[in-house]
Structures are given as structure tokens and as C-alpha cells.
Write a structure and sequence with these properties.
single chain, 172 residues, alpha+beta, 4-stranded antiparallel sheet, 23% strand
Length: 172
Amino acid sequence: MEQQRIGSSSQPLEGAGFDPAFIPGLTSPVTGEAEDAKPEETEEEVEEVEETSSEAGDAVEPEESEEAEEPEEEAAPDGPVFEASDRRARFVADHRGVRLTLDDQECEFRWDEVAAVETETPRFGKRYTITVHTPDRRWYPIEIEATARSVFKDWDEQLDAVLDAYFEEEDD
């Protein structure tokens, strides 16, 4: 007589269908260890810290920490800048590239990472759609709600000026 296992023999599944935060190649599997768990200090490390503090005469001055300052924004050239935003979304195109923001999510593309920028205006409504296409055939659309439909023409002109100034199409 053959023995049978009780329960499933399949491995647990991973991926976006089971974990909405899963991004292949970018996130690693979650470990059982808590994020705020600190490695335990060994007795030798604790003794070294005590020795150095007693040698300094118990008046240990805090070390001046080298603040990791972000490099200051480079001076923006006199070139055109396009910015459109609403309560949730924001699109910026300037000398550095293109930046998309939706709620708390952001992505940034340098001009050499952009294959095309496409705009779309609806026949009705006030949502202006901007789609950034990359050379690896991915696209990133963002919808921005305008205050009025008359703003679409101004936005198209401003974006065209930025694209003419900074975006260089490669000749095939």
C-alpha cells in the first residue's frame, strides 16, 4: 500500500499576485527578522566603549558628525521649464530631465533615458495625460487635472519648448 502525504505538496507562491509590494529584481524576499532589530553587541565591544569613555575623563564630547549634505542644486540654466500639477500628480521637465510624482511615488528620467514624450487631451473633461516612453519599450503615464480646458494649449506649447531645447532624437 502506498503512503500519501496530507496537505499540499506545492511550494508557496511569490509575486505581485500575493504581495502587492513585490517588484521582481528590486525587492528581496521578506526575512523573519524585524527591521528595527539590532545586532547584539559582544562583551569585547562593550568593554572597549567603556575603556575609551573612562580614558576621556568621563566628559566625552560628542563627535562632530560629518553631515552628508546633498550636493546643492546646480544652477538652472536660462532654458525653458515645464511644470504641471494638481492635488495628487506633478510633472516637471527641465534641463535635468523629466520627473513624475503621484502621491508619494516618484520617478525621474534623464534626457538620455527618454525615447519619447506623448501628450493626450480628452475630448471632454479636464484630465491632461502625459506619457514618458523609455528605450526599453516601457511607458509611464500620468494624468493631471487642469483648472480649465483652456490650459491644455498653454501646457502643450510649454512642453514643446522644453522638448525642443533638451530632448535630442537619435537618427536611425
